[in-house]
Description:
- The chain is an alpha/beta fold.
- It has helices at 9-13, 22-26, 35-46, 64-67, 99-109, 128-131, 142-151, 158-164, 179-189, 214-224, 242-246, 259-264, 276-285; strands at 2-3, 17-20, 50-54, 74-77, 82-85, 90-94, 115-120, 123-127, 153-155, 169-175, 195-198, 204-209, 232-236, 250-253, 267-268.
- The protein folds into two domains: 2-95 and 213-285, 3-Layer(aba) Sandwich (Rossmann fold); 99-209, CATH 3.30.1240.10.
- Helix 3 runs parallel beside helix 13 (276-285).
Amino acid sequence: MIIKKNITKDILGKIKILAFDMDGTLLDEKGALSPVNEACILRAMEKGYYIVIATGRGYSAFPADVLGIEGIRYMISSNGAHIVDQHTHETIYSNLLTREAVEAAMPWIADPDLMREVFFHHQVYADRHCMEDLPRYGVLTEKSQNYVRTTRKPVEDAVALIREYADQLENINLLFPDREKRVRYWQELQEIKGLTVVSSMPYNIELGGATTSKATALKALAEMLGLSHDNIMSFGDSTNDAEMLAAAQVAVAMGNAVEELKEVADVITRSNAEDGVAYALDQLLGL
C-alpha cells in the first residue's frame, strides 16, 4: 500500500463514513462481493461506521450480494442522482437533469451511431437494436454483456423516451463505436450549460445534471448525518470517482485505478482482485 500524505491517528479517528464505488472497487473482477470484503464491511458496521455505496449504476442494477448485507443503509445511485435509504425504502435525495440541458444536448444524444442508456425512476432503459449488437459499442466481455442484458430494459426508441421524460432523468449514458467521435463529443458536450460530463469506461460518456455527482450526494448525506468532509473516507477506481475522493478527508484509489485517480489519492491500496478495500481498512482502521 502506498500512503502519499501524512494520515495521523487523529485524522483516522474522525472517520465515520466509508464510501465505496462498486465496480472495480468494492466488487472483484467478476463483479462479485468477495467474502473478505463482506466480512470487513460487517466489522466496520459493528464498530459504528456508516457504509455508503456510491455508484454509477441505477438502483435497480445493484447486485443482490450488496443489497443483501443487513445494515448498509445508504445507497447513492446513478452517479449521485439519488440517495436511497434502505431502511425506509425512500429516496431521500435527488439531483436530476433539467429539460433545458437535455434539449440542448439532443443533437449529440440523438446521433444514430450511438447506443443510449436512459436512467430514470431507478430503472435503466436502452435501445433494443443496440442491445442486440453490444460488441459494436465496446461491450466486449461475456461478463459485461450479461450485465447489460440483465440490468437494462430494451425499448424501441430511447431518444423518444428521453424527450418524454427529460425533466425526470437521472443520467444518460452514451456508448460509442467510434473512439475519435467520443473524444470530440466529450469536448463539445462539456460546453453545454447544465450538464456534468463524466465517464467510467473508455467507450462511454455519462451525462448528469449541472451539480450531479457522487461527491455532491455524499456531501449532502454527510450533512444529513451531522457530519462533514473530515469524517469521510472514500474508495474508487475510475474518473467518475475523482470528485468523491476529493470530497473525502482520506481518499483511497484502488491498485487497478486509472492513473489520474492515483495521482490525486492519499492512499493507493491493492487491486479489487486482491481485496484492496479490506486491505486498506485493515491497515488504516484496524478492521
